[in-house]
Amino acid sequence: MRKLQTAAIAAGTCVCVLAIAPKPAHALISEAAVVAAIKALQSFTGSALNTMTKNLTNSIDSNLTSLTNPDSVASLLTKGFTQTANYAKAQVGAQSQLMDAQNTAMAGFLRRQQETEIRDEHMMNPEFCAGLDAQQSTVAASKAARSAVYAIATVSDPRGEAAQGTPSYYGKSQGTDANMSLHLRRYCSSDDVAQGLCSSVSKLPNADQRATSLFGADTLSADGAVDAANDYATTLIQPIAPAALRGEQLSSIRGREAATRRRSYNSRMSLARWVTGYVTSLGVPSVTLTSDQQAEMKAEGLTPLDKASWLQAMALEVNRRVSSVIWNASLQKMPPASVMREVATEMAQSNYLALQNYRVSLYLATVGATRVAQEEEAAFKDGLTPMPSPTINP
Question: Where is the signal peptide (predicted)?
Answer without folding.
Answer: 1-27
